[in-house]
Write a structure and sequence with these properties.
The complex is a heterodimer of chains A (117) and B (112). Chain A is mostly beta strands and 117 residues long. Chain A is built from no helices and eleven strands. Chain A has strands spanning 5-7, 10-13, 19-24, 31-38, 42-50, 53-56, 65-71, 74-79, 88-95, 107-108, 112-116. In chain A, a hairpin with a 2-residue loop joins strand 7 (65-71) and strand 8. Chain A is globular and about 40 Å long. Chain B is mainly beta and 112 residues long. Chain B is globular. Chain B starts with a strand and ends with a strand. The chains are: A mainly beta (117), B mainly beta (112). Chain A binds chain B through residues 4, 31, 35, 42-43, 45, 48, 50, 56, 91, 93, 95, 97, 103-111, and chain B through 31, 33, 35, 40-45, 48, 50, 88, 90, 93, 97-105.
């Protein structure tokens, strides 16, 4: 299993530009989560999906942030327009809590380090 | 909202020493997870706990689910340089959901 795959690994963009982060969950996992990590706020849950449907987006900071999951193997997190305070590491994670070996823990991707200048 | 506080925030230890860290919650949890994050990578699950008082080991790591259900503890025995990283506790944001919140983290540095 290739694990959760995120792209790009690093993104540097100018303020005001649109940024799209991508995630491919582990095959068969029907939960997908987007987290943001900063020094100040730690790991924050932004949104999560179950069977491609957004369940809780209460962590999405502003309307500038949007997330989609058009199918079971792909999700995007978009920021438009981007601002310097959006600079952070964005993680995608997936899980299938029905599988005992998952132990109810998520599998995280390696993250996308976003820098907005 | 729910908060998970970890202590210590960071620690330097000598190789071979044992390490202890803890996590406290403002509310009762029915599951506790412990993750480790290596530099430049995502967190990786180390241990999952499901019952108050439960003690679970994974190699040199041992974690305990506090009997009050508001805390958990992680111990690392005979630390080695590759133990360096950030250790996070996590618990379900609301009972019955898969929305996990993460603690503030304990940053561990091991001096060879």
């Amino acid at each position: 299993d290739a694990g959760v795959i995120q792209s790009p690994r690093h993104e540097v963009t100018e303020m005001g530009q649109e940024v799209t982060l991508r995630c491919k969950p582990i095959s068969g996992h029907d939960y997908l989560f987007w987290y943001r990590q900063t020094m100040m706020r730690g790991l924050e849950l932004l949104i999560y999906f179950n069977n491609n449907v957004p369940i809780d987006d209460s962590g999405m900071p502003e309307d500038r942030f949007s997330a989609k999951m058009p199918n079971a193997s792909f999700s995007t997190l978009k920021i438009q327009p981007s601002e310097p305070r959006d600079s952070a590491v964005y993680f995608c994670a997936s899980n299938d809590p029905r599988r005992i070996e998952n132990n109810y823990g998520y599998t995280f991707g390696s993250g996308t380090r976003l820098t907005v200048v | 909202g729910q908060q998970l506080n970890q202590s210590p925030q960071s620690m330097f230890i000598q190789e071979g020493e044992d390490v202890s860290m803890n996590c406290t919650s403002s509310s009762i949890f029915n599951t506790w997870l412990w993750y480790k994050q290596d530099p430049g990578e995502g967190p990786v699950l180390l241990i999952a706990l499901y019952k108050a008082g439960e003690l679970t080991s994974n190699g040199r790591l041992t974690a305990q689910f506090g009997i009050t259900r508001k805390d958990s503890f992680l111990n690392i025995s005979a630390s080695i340089p590759s133990d360096v990283g950030i250790y996070f506790c996590a618990g379900p944001g609301n009972s019955g959901t898969y929305k996990y919140i993460f603690g503030t983290g304990t940053r561990l540095k091991v001096l060879a």
